Every structure is written in C-alpha cells, then in structure tokens.
Amino acid sequence: MFGEPTEVVSIAGKCCESGDMLIWDIALPEAKPGDYLAVFCTGAYGYSMANNYNRLPRPAVVFVENGDAQLVVKRETYEDLIQYDLPLKTKVKK
C-alpha cells in the first residue's frame, strides 16, 4: 500500500463491537487485495493483552528488525481454541 493518499478512512477491528475502532479518519492510498496495513498500537489486539473474546484466536507475533522478519509466536488456530472444551451431557425432556 504505497502512493499518495486518495481517501480518508477509519480502521475497525474484528470484534463486531461499536467501540472496536483502531484508527479514525486517516488518509491512505487505495487498498488492493493482498495489501497489508501495519498498526503499531492496537491495545488488546497485541499479544500481551490478547484473549479469546468472541472466540477469536490470538495473533501471531513477528519481530522485525532492519527489514528482517522472524515469526516468534504462531497464530492460534480454531483447534487451539476448542482443545479443552468438553461435550455437554444434557438430556432433552419430552
């Protein structure tokens, strides 16, 4: 995502909550499929404050220094989220 800003946008998080806004009114170039947007201050989206609210998996952690990137924590999968869940033992009354 390079180039001159062409539109003013707001960036929302993925929690489907009215307060889940990361950035308000920022001028950016037009985004295309496959583009990335790095947001450096994300509060609870950062690994140290992440949780599984709304059954969202925790993010991967990548260290970047001098243009070199290293994955240091793998992204959590859905299988990771449910690994400790137990089946319900309920009976439906007729």
From TrEMBL:
<keyword id="KW-0663">Pyridoxal phosphate</keyword>
<dbReference type="GO" id="GO:0008836">
    <property type="term" value="F:diaminopimelate decarboxylase activity"/>
</dbReference>
<dbReference type="InterPro" id="IPR009006">
    <property type="entry name" value="Ala_racemase/Decarboxylase_C"/>
</dbReference>
<dbReference type="Pfam" id="PF00278">
    <property type="entry name" value="Orn_DAP_Arg_deC"/>
</dbReference>
<protein>
    <submittedName>
        <fullName>Diaminopimelate decarboxylase</fullName>
    </submittedName>
</protein>
<feature type="domain" description="Orn/DAP/Arg decarboxylase 2 C-terminal">
    <location>
        <begin position="5"/>
        <end position="43"/>
    </location>
</feature>
<dbReference type="GO" id="GO:0009089">
    <property type="term" value="P:lysine biosynthetic process via diaminopimelate"/>
</dbReference>
<dbReference type="InterPro" id="IPR022643">
    <property type="entry name" value="De-COase2_C"/>
</dbReference>
